[in-house]
Records
---
Amino acid sequence: EKIMADKNRAVVFHGVKDMRVDTLDFPKLEMPNGKKAPHGVIVKLIATNICGSDLHIYRGSFPAPEGMVMGHEMTGEVVEIGSDVEFLKPGDIVSVPFNVACGRCRNCRNGRTEVCETTNPEVSCAAYGFNLGGFAGGQAEYMFVPYADFQLLRFPDKDQAMEKILDLAVLSDILPTAFHGLVEAGVKPGSTVYIAGAGPVGRCGAAAARLLGASCIIVGDYYEDRLELVRRNGCETINLSKVDSINDGIEAILGTPYVDCAVDYVGNEAHGLGQEAEKTKSSYAINQVLDATRPGGATGIIGVYGANPISPVPAEREGIYSINFGDAWIKSPRIAGGQAPIMHYNRDLMMSILWNRMPYLSDMLNIKVISLDEAPQAYADFDEGSSLKYVTDPHGSIPAAQ
Ligand code: NAD
Ligand code: ZN
Ligand code: ZN
């Protein structure tokens, strides 16, 4: 089935702090190396989000080629299918996991789609709209998705999906990602949890911690309006510019300086505590999260860490961070990092949303729907610490009531 459009408008990276909306060719069922992809589909985007991970590219801490189409958090309608696609049909509403995964390699077969061995063999990790495999992103009107039968999560009912589209839009990345961090940190009913970062991913972490039945959920950040979104939804907060030690901040709330589980939702542009709140150092958040965790506790590291070319510290430009391992080691820590395997969680979390088990999610997220043309400005506002989560609606298909 062919559709009428022959062009594709998309948000394109032109350099640090320079995103533009360009008109490109309509996507083909073709891999980045030009090989035909009859296992792929073309998706017409309904909701395509801007993420903190995009900010790393915007700021220059995660280098990307000029001309790359941005975006890795996509929800849309299947409009064209390759000849080998068996289970999807035009008209299906789907969530696209941000990891590009073949479904055929050793890791994919074990559910470890975040380290697919074939879609970007250089580092065994591929994502749309990243310098990871050359797959065009989805902050666009249309996009190509390979291995579609394997990768796409289809929503069971189109009308119901459109009613809940803004909650469902975070299934492509930030909700499953945040949930993964908590699972890695061993969160279960009754756990005390420290969440580093009140950006959209940290706020999803706070929501997911509630879903998992955590007891005391403490969120740390500097932006009061971001903290307010979680505070009014049952979480405790620490303004990190007002404490000199994370353990003091936790003790003031919990009566003990440690939590059971702590997760880094920050990444390598982290700020320090108290006097050092204006300073950045790539290892600040990891060390705070290790400090926060009790002996025998566990830690998840969801924030993105790689060689950071804009760091003032030469070692960090090589990807070498000063982790306070001596203090951590004696506590027998469990530390897990990496990209999240979205497919491992997205179906279950979709069911939680469809059955209204996370009624607090949308208030914590604070989504604003924007047009494609508004995306470059939204990057700038998000970079400045806006408490909104920006969701682009390239075709004007999201009902205004949301
Ligand atoms: P964001 O930039 O909006 O949020 C980061 C927040 O951390 C900001 O509010 C900032 O003020 C705060 N912060 C800075 N230093 C801190 C510190 N020391 N302690 C606590 N908070 C601190 O970004 P986001 O969209 O919420 O994403 C958060 C991180 O998660 C990013 O690094 C992003 O790349 C990463 N991420 C990882 C995956 C994955 O699969 N691992 C997926 C999605 C996003
Ligand atoms: Zn993302
Ligand atoms: Zn694979």
---
Amino acid sequence: MEDIKMIAPSILSADFSKLGQEIKTVEQAGADIIHLDIMDGRYVPNITIGIPVVESLRPLTNLPFDAHLMIVEPERYVPDFIKAGCDMISFHMDACVHSHRLVDYIKSQGVKAGVVLNPATPVNTLDEIIHYIDYVLIMSVNPGFGGQRFIPQTLEKVKKLKILMEETGRMDILIEIDGGINENNIAEVSSAGVNIFVAGSSIFKAEDPAEMVKKLKQKATFTEV
Ligand code: DX5
Ligand code: ZN
């Protein structure tokens, strides 16, 4: 799936008083997915948005909604996020006791299922679940806040994941990266084999967010080898 390159703006860094408008801006600029950072103040030290916000944003765009659940016991809320219109749902395996059951449930609802690796979570955590998931979200910062710096070791992790995908015959799995992605590092990250690029502050804090979406997409797509 090397050639799939998608930009997923994270609305965490958008202006919350005009979320609808912010989403329209990135959609018109060519964004592929809207990344929703759901934090509960327990799994991570921050609280963001919940189900009612997702519901009210849903009619405003046709782009897929990618819910990144940074919450404990994600299984308690997954059905509601699906009802609210999420197309992709990822959760942190260390926040969930029965990961296989949850992945199974998400997929049974026609939604793409992903699991998330924190910076210190090894790739081999995926050894068993890899047979069932649709995508892996690799955190390139510690979850909880936007605007942090990309952890360079992440590139090695992407390479390890690609090896595991090859070994298990799961080259169809999409690799999503989240944290510190900007116009200066996206080309290198893309060359490592990443498919979906989450970008929050680099897009929404840019002078011209629409221009930044286009720039990121262009740099992710036309990488030098
Ligand atoms: C962090 C979130 C990220 C965050 C990325 O916990 O998962 O999605 O919004 O923000 P930037 O792109 O600013 O690092
Ligand atoms: Zn995220």
